[in-house]
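Researcher: Here's my situation. A collaborator sent me these components and asked whether they could plausibly form a single complex. I don't have experimental data yet, so a predicted model of the whole assembly would be a useful starting point for our discussion.
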Amino acid sequence: MGDDELKKVANEVRRGIVTSVHAAKSGHPGGSLGAADIITYLYFEEMDVDPADPHKAGRDRFVLSKGHCAPALYSALACRGFFPKEDLETLRHIGSHLQGHPNMNDTPGVDMSTGSLGQGISAAVGMALAAKHWGDSYRTYCLLGDGEIEEGQVWEAAMFAGNHALDNLCLIVDHNGLQIDGTIEEVNSAMPIADKFRAFKFHVIEVADGNDFEQIRAAFAEARATKGAPTCIVAETVKGKGVSFMENNVGWHGKAPNDEQFEQAMAELEKEA
Amino acid sequence: MADVKKIATRASYGEALVELGAEHDDFVVLDADLAAATQTGKFKAAYPDRFFDAGIAEENMMGIAAGIATTGRVAFASTFAMFAAGRAFEQVRNSIGYPHLNVKIGATHAGISVGEDGATHQCCEDVALMRTIPGMTVIVPSDDVEAKAAVRAAYEMDGPVYMRFGRLAVPVFNDEETYEFEIGRGVKLREGSDVTIVACGLMVQAALEAADTLADRGIDAEVINIHTIKPLDEDIIVESAKKTGRVVTCEEHSIIGGLGDAVLAALAEKHPVPVKKVGVMDTFGESGPAVDLLHKYGLDAEGVTAAVEAFMA
């Protein structure tokens, strides 16, 4: 799929995010919009997955360690055909298969239950380790937040992945610089992120614009070609990307748009499409 | 009793893993830098390529085990009870329990019989913590035979399991040839009519010895081994309570939230009778030889005997 086509899909994914969070009247639109391009690339270009057979044995795995960005994952899965797009409007509703944070036993295409920050990466490491041990060829991708990596468990997992040279593992740090209580610098910065992962024996790829498909494509190609070490892509993204009043505004970390804001957000996205 | 064989259930765990490893290659064993103590070192020696050391990082170990289990295989994850159920509680809840993954937690060095290491390592809260997790099976084996059977049963069943093992060598009283272990099914070890003693772990042996002493003193005690705290065999307990009218629970665990409370809840709903809980009395442990500690905290045959006599008075 070419970059122009990916952009169109990502726009559709973004509209799904805004629609679902609006319908839920709660949720996390900012991080979801910022990570939409990376997740779109994974599900429409990078990963070997089959919507008709979500549990296909040899499929590539994706773990959304920053599980609060479930709206992005759900929208990408719906756009990819894992379940009807109409389901997005049931996000966070009682009885819906779309829980506030992803659950692998509820939603087709979700490979791991996540939401408690710092835990998804360990599961991803386990998946990669299992592939190495039993000779499976799948790759494992794991998206982390730049606030999430303040959790100590992330570094326990990184230490293990580096020491075991899990080159079938690709982490992506969604580096938008914002967390709930403020900028990551104000709160408790994990900077310098790239140097830290290098010190943990990762091959690190820094992506200046994690919302640009050309750069995303190059990074994942390099990750795939990297042998003997796990890869960590540190991608600079814009939180709230695609909706003007949400961009770089930490106030939209975990808040749903009201009807008026929803109309404006959808109008902006539709104009882009 | 001099010729009674004594084996720590942690040793049984290590041996059972080796035996299982000879039959199946769809599982791996993880530890967190305690392989010699948890006895997974035996498995490591037998199958070095199927053993992974997470280092001193229990939270990550639980997550890795969960990730492995998502691929349809089984992961045994081992460390001390304090770190398995305590430190990594939330990882066990969210990464293993919530997705109901096939992770089998082998938690050793449970209870005050850890001994000299003292209170920081004497986990008396693990059963309480683990049994609150939906879908978690909690097993507290009483001896070598039962511990080995539990490891095999845990491997064979679908879903997460917490197995509680001890450091102290304890008498082997179950017959390896005839003993039939079934998860969730209690075992009546002694018939009695005056009082029911429900026990788990090393307290089963203490209860049996206490029952002998009590018999000499005119108290006819029934003894039931509840090796599976969850799911609890309520039927065997209720049936016995209907006969004896009094129940004493015995566990090397806090009296809050463990076997005692599980039994109490079942009886309160189905057949209320007076219940006495014998366990660690809402206090931390301390350093000392295991046997001396068990005595001091009333967790030996003498302590159980005294508690039952006082209860019956």
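Model: Some features of this prediction you could bring to your collaborator: The first strand of chain A starts at residue 61 and ends at 64. Chain A has a mean pLDDT of 97.
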